[in-house]
Protein: Cobalt transport protein
Amino acid sequence: MKYEPVEALLKSASQYFEVFFIQENVKGPIRLVDTRIGLIGFLILVLLSISTFSPPKLFFIFFNLLLLIVVSNIPIRTYLKRVGLIPLFIFTIMLPQIFISSFEYAILFTFRVCLAVSFLIIFTLITPFKEILTSLRFYKIPEILVLTLSFTYSYTYLVFNELYRILIARESRRFNNKSYRKIWHEGGELLGMFFIKVYERGENIHLARISRGYSNMPYSVKFIKFNLMPNIIFISFIASVTVGWMVL
Structure:
């Protein structure tokens, strides 16, 4: 049918982002690193990834990314599920740059963004989200930003889950092919219904939270016991990557 490719893409995207925002909490040696130190270390790796277009530097970062994946005991399949559509999505956005700049520029831009996202994925896979929020509070990040990040994380899964349910319901009630005009008209109705349902469901969840004693006060989270050696090794790794990046 005319509209099947578009809806199939939307369904695949909604399923992908549902998986993307589910925490795995993979156990590995890097989990022994203090979350507050890990947060700074991974942010440095992200900055190194997006601060250059040099192929040698990017491949050097890529090699260290693979090393982190192995050391973290993250299954390759789990990592690929998270990365998934990101390279294709970024490259699609960069397609006009092929004609404005060059094909090499589009490839390198896609590569560097994928590296940065990959480091964030690794960090969220090995670190509980509550500890990430507590680390942000430790560094005196404004509370409103931390709360916004918390709500965004909580409701993003809800948004894509609701989109998938609406698409499945619409598909089960469709019997014949329709004109493009009718398809666009129904697509607009679906979009409006989607936002209404997400708003109503999010409001119900928030009211349920409040009825169970939720407040904006930050909850206390205990970090894992501080181990000196894993933290020294991790800091040394970040320092060596930074020095290697500068030398290249």
